[in-house]
Structures are given as C-alpha cells and as structure tokens.
Design a protein that fits this description.
The complex is a heterodimer.
Chain A: H1 3-6, H2 12-31, H3 35-55, H4 60-77, H5 84-104, H6 135-145, H7 149-160, H8 166-172, H9 182-203
Chain B: H1 14-30, H2 37-48, E1 52-54, E2 56-61, E3 74-80, E4 85-92, E5 98-105, E6 111-116, E7 120-124, E8 130-136, E9 140-145, E10 159-161, E11 165-166
Parallel strand pairs in B: 1-10
Antiparallel strand pairs in B: 2-3, 3-4, 4-5, 5-8, 6-7, 6-9, 9-10, 9-11
The chains are: A mainly alpha, B alpha+beta.
Chain lengths: ~200, ~170
Amino acid sequence: MDEATSVTAPPERTDRSDRAARMADLLDAAKGGSEEALGQITAELSPMLWHVARAAGLGADDAEDVVQTAWERLLSHLADIRVPQALIGWLVVTTKHEAWRIRSSGRRQRPADQEWLTALPDHAAGTEEQIILDEQQRALWRAVGRLSAQCQELLRIVAFVPRPDYQSVSAALGMPVGSVGPTRGRCLQKIRVLLADELDGRRA
Amino acid sequence: MKSHDDAPDQQLDDLDFEILDGIRALFERVDPMPAGLPGRVRFALAMRGLESEVARLVTEEDPRLVGARGTERSRTVTFDSASLSIVIRIEENKNGSVRIDGWLAPPQPREIEMQTSDETLSVSSDDQGRFAFAEVPQGTARLVVVGTAARDQGAGGPSVVTPALVL
C-alpha cells in the first residue's frame, strides 16, 4: 500500500517546508481567533525571543517581561502580519526594540555587559553546577567571547532563527535584503578566524 | 537572470551553518529559556483575549481656535465599538508633538496603548474613563484599549483597536 509514503520520518529539508506550511496554518487559525493555534506558535517561537532579549543584555526577569510584551503586541498586530514569513521578523524586531526600550529607560542599571558570558566556567571538570562541554564546544564558546558585543548579539539571534527565515529576519533587522548583510558576513568571518585560532591554540 | 536577491544565503556555506548550529546548541545549554515561560505567555495572552473589536470612526471635528492662530490647534475624534465609545482630543504641543486627552464610555479603568510606527506608549484610564498621553510624536498612530479577562460588573472587555490616525 502506501506505507513507503505515509509515516516515514521526513528528511530535514521536507521538515523545513512542512514547518513553514504548519506555521502558515497556525497563523491563519490564530487570526481566526484560535487560542490553541496561538499557544502553539508561542511555544515554538518563545525560545528564539528569549535569546533575542538575553542577547540584548537583559537580565532574566526583564527578558521574560520583554518576551511576554512582544507576544502581547502581536495580538493587536495579528491582522498586519499578512504573510507567515513576516511573523518571525516582526517578533524578533519587536522583542529587540522592547529590550532596547527597557535598557534605555534605565529601569535596570546593568550595563551592556553580557552577564551570560561569565556563566560558563573555564574548566571542564569541576563542581556539579558546571556545564560540561567538549573541546570543540569550548573553543567555539571562547571564540564567541572574543567577538565584539555587536557580533555576539547578531550571531546569537541569527543562530536561533529558523534557516528559511534568515532573509526576512536580516531584512527586518535592517541588514540588506538579499544578502546575509555586511555585518553578519563580517561577524561570521570573524568567528571563523577566532575559532581556527582557538583550535590551533589548544593544539600548540 | 539571477540577482543577489534570489540567493540570500549564497554567502553562507556549510561551515557557517555548522558554526551557527554550534552557537545555538551552546546557548541552549548555557542560558536556556526558563521552562515555564511559554506557559506564562499563554496565560497572559488568554487573559488579554484574542478577539479584538475594531472601533469605527464616528465623528471628526477640526475647530481651529480663533484668537490663538497658528499656536493652538485641536480636533476631537470619536470612535465607537460594540463595547466602548472613545473620544479623544488631539492638541498640538509647542515642540511639535501632540497631546491626547481621551475618555472612555462607559467610564472604566483600562490599560490604553498608543501604537506609533516606532514605539508603543502605555497609560491607564481612571475610574472616570479619562486618560492622557502628554507627548505623542506626529505621524500615524492608533489607539488600543487593552482587553481584560474580567467582564464582571459590566467593566472590562475585549481589546478595542481604532483605525490608524494621522496626528
């Protein structure tokens, strides 16, 4: 029968377009008033927004507030999101703006320092609190730490954006449409160099 | 002819993707989203109510005040929705921004947002339904009376959204 075409796990590529189609359906349903659909969208995209808010330098409580605010704003803008591809870009930009607003309101005195950067202990073995990473991951982590604050923020955001949405998000973040953008290109270029350096350094 | 716009990820190669995936995996471990956040978001959204009413513009008056030519201008705009009437008076400030005084009928305390292209300003109305935005940048904006869950005692209700206003 159609066993071969029915329930086999789809390859990753199909997975992605399935995901896009599913998001489009969920968005339509949410516009039509389905709280269930909206709930599924928030479950899927909240992690991305959390990282956008944290990358902007917010503390955990503020980051939660900002994510929640972004979703609340979406409610009154749902009708404006005409194509599903616009949804992720809209959410990322709204979260980033809201994070900036909170930062610049001086409500929190924490400066732009990236508190999470210090969250990782420097040595792999240690107390149970510490996060065990392999050598490759450690090198990547150190390379990230050597990036400018701007590149750290950008790469952290982009890393959480679903790949098919890179373009709309890069456009929404004010980077040129139709290319990865000079800033992102530069940041990726930099981390490649830093990563190679870290890996070399360990071997030496 | 294929332009750059057709191939947005042209410059990203496998190593780029590998690095981005690696960064994602690292941050997921080092600074994960609090597990309860999506649930809290969902709760907040349910409280707010997904359905919003669209308010209709009812009247718009533009009485240029005589005697203060060119320095003081105001207009009054009225909106109606199924659950609320909103009257706002828009006055030009000296610095070019506008001041907005508004009233809700029936009178009730609600959270009120002014959404401009750049930002969202937020105030609350008092028991008499009065609210004010002291300075709103000129441009296009719309007003949202934020929905409330409790519809007891006739107060509260779904979000009410006005059409865009040119301030």
